[in-house]
Design goal:
The chain is α/β, with parallel strands linked by helices and about 220 residues long. The protein has one domain: 3-Layer(aba) Sandwich (Rossmann fold). It has helices spanning about 10-20, 20-25, 35-45, 50-60, 65-75, 90-100, 140-150, 165-170, 185, 200-205; strands spanning about 80-90, 105-110, 115-120, 160, 175-180. A hairpin with a 2-residue loop joins strand 2 (about 105-110) and strand 3. The chain binds zinc ion (ZN).
Length: about 220
């Protein structure tokens, strides 16, 4: 979601908006913490914030060029489009509605009386006992769940991502596109590269480009 559909990073924008940047600074991209430790600690930074602020920030971040048209174009071609993200469901669902995607898989922040408790439930679809051998929490594990629960094989999946945490998924999916990837290890994990406008994905697949949509 961040960097692929959104031009920006949700947690950073949220921290800036709510004056919590100092608390976030030592946690974000801290490789000394495992994702299963880091993600709950980042969530705790936002304890007490109202739900409405999460929705406002997810609505206000600009979308990447061609985001709506690409999701719509893929759906018209028969793809089911999901947003698989290490962000929060409340943000992912807001972005899903903006781009007309089908579903989201993400971590779930707990809210009580319209404010977050700062506690988080890690995305169950990113955990699998027979999944990624390298990471406990990994987007590639979504493919295992898809296969078991829907009979969809990895070969039938097109993955789009830009970050280190997308690499396992990009390597395993039948087709994969790094979009403005952050680092050569990310672009090396996939067959194609698209830069600048997501509609390049439709072009790669030989699909028609829908008309410019109003975002
Ligand atoms: Zn992995």
């Amino acid at each position: 979601m961040d960097g692929t559909l959104l031009d920006g990073r949700f947690v950073m924008a949220l921290a800036q908006r709510t004056g919590r940047e100092p608390s976030l600074a030592g946690l974000l991209d801290n490789d000394q913490l495992s994702p299963t430790t880091r993600t709950p600690r980042i969530a705790a930074v936002f304890a007490g914030l109202p739900k409405s602020v999460f929705e406002q920030v997810a609505r206000s971040l600009p979308l990447k060029p061609g985001a709506v048209e690409t999701v719509v174009g893929l759906r018209k071609a028969g793809f089911v489009v999901g947003i698989v993200t290490d962000s929060y469901r409340i943000a992912a669902e807001t972005v899903r509605r903006r781009v007309f995607a089908d579903f989201t898989l993400s971590h779930v922040l707990t809210f009580r009386n319209e404010r977050t408790t700062g506690r988080i439930t890690l995305c169950p679809a990113m955990l699998h006992p027979k999944g990624c051998l390298e990471h406990t929490l990994c987007k590639v594990n979504v493919l295992e769940h898809l296969r078991e629960e829907s009979g969809v094989s990895a070969d039938q999946v097109l993955a789009v991502g830009d970050s280190h945490n997308d690499i396992c998924l990009l390597r395993t999916a039948g087709d994969s596109v790094p979009f403005e990837s952050r680092g050569s290890d990310v672009s090396g994990a996939a067959q194609h590269t698209v830069v600048g406008d997501l509609r390049g994905i439709l072009q790669l697949l030989g699909l028609p480009h829908p008309r410019q949509a109003e975002v």
